[in-house]
């Protein structure tokens, strides 16, 4: 039986069309097997080829459309039938698969037709393996790129700084985790893609645009330190705007904005600066206090001697002058005593664990007979279960008493004094607040309130040393003293002390 030329050409044409089809490779190979099966009247036709993304081989068998055969290698293929023909599918030295055909009787030139079909299929299988290798490589690179993006995103989210990125249209393109948990607390999905001017509304839009434009145009970083308005407690940030160039060229495509919380640094600098000023004044006070005391003692002695001879002076103004001298000498003596307390710790008892609430109760008990105590309402907001602090109880009572008396002076017409205790920002701190509803402190005065000899009280009512001495006492207890005030609404003094057993 001979293969008719027309049937052979029909088979080759059908195979060529199937190889150029866009259907799935497995489907195309199965259709080719069915075409060979029909042309030869074969019992079975199997096309073996490498399985996608695997080292093994799989076979498409006709007329069993749904059966997929498996073999670990071409050498491990089951033996072909005696009446069959096995044609390798090769391209150069590469063995790409095998064509198995089982027939009862081979037509003339049938094997030659199969070899032509095999030669047509080999480039197809070679291209199929290459495309699968490329697809695997692309998928691998995509997974690596995705993993790299996730890693970089995790690094950015783990930074202890707020970070966001805007493009030249001022649209937000990145927003890290710290920005989500910051003072504004805006979620990433709510801000990415939006205009930065619609998201960050605390700063002037014109000022913000000018800062971004400066970086876009100059290609240089811009840094500034800002204080957050109305923050309680006060907060400072160092803002850096950094140019970013995406792709080739010198053109700045994005601006990275980084916000670093420097509140602790600024507060430490303030305390160090204040301590340095207090130390310098203390040295000055220690050097001059004796020189001042000696002439004061002479003036006081002379005034006393003159007072004993008043009968010799008929002028009625002399007693008045002597009284003025005596009062002013006493005032100078109080200033010198304050300088002495300021310049050295003075008499202290050994620090011991004490309850802050108990010290405050003792302070209020000592002041309950003060004439201004009866004109104010005293509120106690004392937290329970506070840890003790290691302190000189007498000195801390001196501090609390000075703060309460200052509050009295600020409320001449009456008001509310609130004494409050609670845990500090850290669990190892105890916070004491003395708040009044008095006249408050003006902004220019607020920054100098702890300076020696600086006072907002009228002449004759204060030396300006009380708060400076309090500041020094609290510093020696490894704590810190701060003030917050709003003119017309009142003042809050805060004393933070380390709890007993803490290392701060």
List keywords for this structure.
single chain, 504 residues, alpha+beta, five-stranded antiparallel beta sheet
What's this entry about, in short?
The chain has 504 residues and is α+β, with helices and mostly antiparallel strands.
How much helix is in the residues?
A: 40-55%
Based on Cα principal axes, name the global outline.
rod-shaped
The termini sit apart by: 104 Å
Strand arrangement within the widest β-sheet reads 3-2-1-5-4
Radius of gyration: 46 Å
SSE ordering: HHEEEEEHEEHHHHEEEHHEHEEHEEHHEE
Overall number of strands: 17
* Major sheet: 5 strands, antiparallel
Low-pLDDT regions: none
- Overall pLDDT: 80
Question: Strand portion, in percent?
Answer: 15-25%
> Based on helices, strands and strand pairing, what is the structural class?
alpha+beta
Task: Write the SSE topology.
Layout: H1 5-19, H2 25-40, E1 44-50, E2 57-62, E3 68-71, E4 84-91, E5 94-102, H3 110-158, E6 162-167, E7 172-175, H4 177-180, H5 188-191, H6 196-199, H7 205-218, E8 222-227, E9 236-244, E10 254-261, H8 263-307, H9 317-343, E11 352-354, H10 356-367, E12 376-382, E13 389-391, H11 393-410, E14 415-423, E15 429-436, H12 443-446, H13 466-476, E16 480-486, E17 490-498
Parallel strand pairs: 12-14
Antiparallel strand pairs: 1-2, 1-5, 2-3, 4-5, 6-7, 6-10, 8-9, 9-10, 11-13, 14-15, 15-17, 16-17
Helix pairs in contact: 1-2, 1-3, 8-9, 10-11, 11-13
């Amino acid at each position: 039986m001979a293969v008719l030329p027309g049937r052979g050409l029909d088979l080759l044409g059908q195979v060529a069309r199937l190889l150029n089809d866009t259907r799935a490779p497995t489907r195309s190979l199965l259709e080719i097997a069915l075409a060979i099966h029909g042309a030869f009247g074969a019992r079975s036709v199997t096309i073996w080829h490498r399985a996608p993304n695997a080292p093994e081989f799989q076979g498409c068998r006709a007329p069993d459309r749904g059966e997929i055969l498996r073999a670990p290698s071409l050498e491990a293929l089951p033996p072909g039938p005696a009446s069959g023909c096995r044609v390798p599918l090769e391209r150069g030295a590469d063995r790409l698969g095998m064509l198995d055909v089982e027939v009862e009787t081979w037509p003339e030139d049938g094997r030659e037709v199969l070899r032509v079909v095999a030669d047509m299929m080999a480039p197809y299988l070679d291209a199929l393996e290459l495309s699968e290798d490329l697809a695997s490589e692309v998928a691998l690179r995509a997974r690596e790129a995705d993993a790299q993006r996730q890693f970089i995103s995790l690094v950015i989210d783990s930074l202890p700084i707020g970070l966001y990125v805007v493009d030249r249209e001022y649209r937000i393109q990145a927003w890290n985790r710290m920005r989500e948990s910051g003072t504004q607390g805006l979620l990433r999905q709510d801000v990415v893609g939006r205009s930065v001017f619609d998201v960050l509304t605390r700063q002037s839009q014109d000022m913000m645009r000018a800062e971004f434009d400066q970086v876009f145009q100059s290609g240089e970083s811009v840094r500034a330190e800002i204080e957050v308005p109305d923050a309680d407690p006060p907060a400072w940030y160092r803002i850096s705007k950094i140019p970013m160039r995406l792709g080739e060229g010198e053109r700045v495509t994005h601006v990275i904005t980084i916000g670093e919380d420097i509140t602790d640094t600024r507060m430490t600098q303030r305390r160090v600066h204040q301590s340095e000023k207090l130390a310098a004044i203390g040295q000055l006070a220690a050097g001059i206090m004796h020189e001042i005391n000696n002439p004061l003692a002479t003036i006081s002695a002379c005034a006393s001697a003159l007072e004993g001879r008043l009968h010799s002076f008929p002028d009625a103004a002399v007693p008045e002058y002597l009284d003025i001298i005596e009062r002013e000498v006493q005032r100078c003596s109080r200033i010198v005593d304050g300088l002495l307390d300021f310049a050295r710790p003075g008499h202290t008892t050994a620090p011991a664990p004490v309850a802050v609430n108990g010290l405050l109760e003792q302070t209020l008990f000592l002041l309950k007979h003060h004439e201004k105590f009866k004109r104010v309402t005293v509120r106690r907001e004392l937290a329970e279960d506070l840890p003790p602090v290691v302190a000189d109880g007498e000195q801390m009572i001196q501090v609390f008493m000075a703060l309460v008396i200052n509050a009295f002076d600020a409320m001449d017409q009456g008001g509310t004094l609130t004494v409050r205790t609670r845990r500090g920002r850290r669990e190892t701190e105890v916070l004491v607040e003395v708040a009044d509803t008095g006249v408050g402190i003006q902004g220019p005065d607020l920054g100098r309130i702890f300076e020696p000899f600086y006072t907002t009280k009228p002449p004759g009512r204060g030396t300006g040393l009380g708060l400076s001495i309090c500041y020094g006492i609290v510093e020696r207890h490894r704590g810190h003293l701060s003030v917050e005030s709003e003119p017309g609404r009142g003042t809050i003094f805060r004393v933070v002390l380390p709890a007993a057993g803490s290392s701060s």
